[in-house]
Amino acid sequence: MCLFERSLKGKSRFYSGLIHAVLLFLIFYAGYSGFAYGRIADKGVEPKKQDGSINSNIVAELNGVPISTHDLIKRYNIFLLISGSPAGTNERLPLNSYLESYITEKLLIQEARSMNITAGRAEVEKEIRKYLEINNLGEDAFKKRLSDLKITREDVAGYFRDNLIVIRLGEKKFGNVKISDDDARKVYDNNYDYFNGPERVSVSHILICHKGSKGCLSDLDRDEAGELARNLLDVATPANFSKLARQYSSDRSADEGGDLGIITRGSLLPAFEDAAFKLEAGKISDVVETERGFHIIFIKAKQNARSQSFELVKGIIKKNLNEEYIASKLFEYSDQLLKTADIKRYTLSEGAPETAGQKKKTEEDKRQKASPVKNFQTFKSTGSPLNVNSKGQPVILFFSRVDCSHCQWISETFNSTVLEYVEKGLIEAHHYDTVTGDDLLTPVEESEIPEKYMDIKKDGSPDYVPYFNFGGVYERRGTGYEAQDDFFAEEMEMRQVIDTLLKQ
Description:
The chain has 504 residues and is of the alpha+beta class. Helices cover 46% and strands 15% of the residues. It has helices spanning 18-33, 69-83, 89-92, 95-114, 121-134, 139-148, 153-174, 181-190, 192-195, 222-235, 241-248, 270-278, 310-340, 363-370, 405-423, 451-460, 487-503, and strands at 39-45, 58-62, 65-68, 196-197, 200-208, 259-263, 288-290, 293-303, 306-307, 342-346, 380-381, 395-400, 428-433, 467-470, 474-477. The strands form four sheets. The chain has a five-stranded mixed β-sheet with strand order 11-15-14-12-13, with helices on both faces. Strands 1-10-2-3 form a four-stranded mixed β-sheet. The longest helix has 31 residues, at 310-340. The protein starts with 17 loop residues before the first helix and ends with a helix. The model is unreliable at 1-46, 48-54, 86-92 and 357-372 (pLDDT under 50).
């Protein structure tokens, strides 16, 4: 897909934590494929002091500049803190692998400083405050986290200062691109419904009909039906709504957990619509009576009416496209720097200080590590055998809904990632919309999800989207890194899971 035809379903990939975003790919690519950049001398040997003794404090030299074990571990811990990664991340992202990221970061900083690119203290503090605000984190709580990791605020300031410097490097080298109106118009046209559309709600209901209801057979009289509906309302929650609908609802939607799909005004009975459109997403209505009986309504998602002309949003689209362009060019540029740098890597000392989250392995940890099923950050093992097609290719499945904002956030990343493997003939992949039945990875418009795949969805997560099932062996309910707006982490973990399946 051309850069200027990208969907705006997700947020911009370019943000103030650019090092985390751009370099995350290098972390995983180097750490999990055994790939090494640069002219590497004496890989795996121990560095010598001038007197010939072992210098265990140095882990690498970059264009003649040493990187100490202490600095590497400090930056690694800050990375885990700022990226929001949990303590167990060090099992998925070993320190040796993070070293590749740190080397790349240092190269970019060296290049930026050779161009006299800097960032002032006030600007750095502004970025720290922005981080605290986004994460709803007070100063005291932040200081406590820093203290627990033996990190100073000055260390964190250095991390954010480097972020700003790398961003400015990208802007200075690649920020002169001109985004045309035609480029912006393509994005607008391809995402017209994102900018325009009527008010819509994704709705489920429980219908209790009675002898006097239209279009519904029941042995209950009106009073009995009303009482049952009120009793159900007392126990109904968003979590159990689907289960209650399957058990008690009187119409055919019971088979789908009461799901009525997406509605706009004028499509259903007035009393039902009035109640539905007054509700906020995630809320359950009082009992609503119509000619069909008594309804309990649950609003799963809501989208306000939108009417945004191209001229109104053109500037925002151009800004996003410009930022994506800079990020992509900076990514390519870092690759070039790594290929030409003089890099020496040394064996990390076994006596190196502990990193954040490190702990002694239990017997259970050892058993899991010995298992052929790998542990990932957000994807979990299903305990099921590998699901392959007739060609022996793992089958990759993603189930979403048109009204699901979380699905919209992750869809482009999933689609572009798996299509790369599909085009190489390595996997079979499907992205099904559970409302329309359409496979969004194919040019034709389907209307029904194959039963064998729908069974996987129902078994793994009957009501929840987004839902991912990779090769039958791994699954995930929901997104993994949406809170950090981190598409790169999403893509890298998906690649890890797929690559693991391909090795089985």
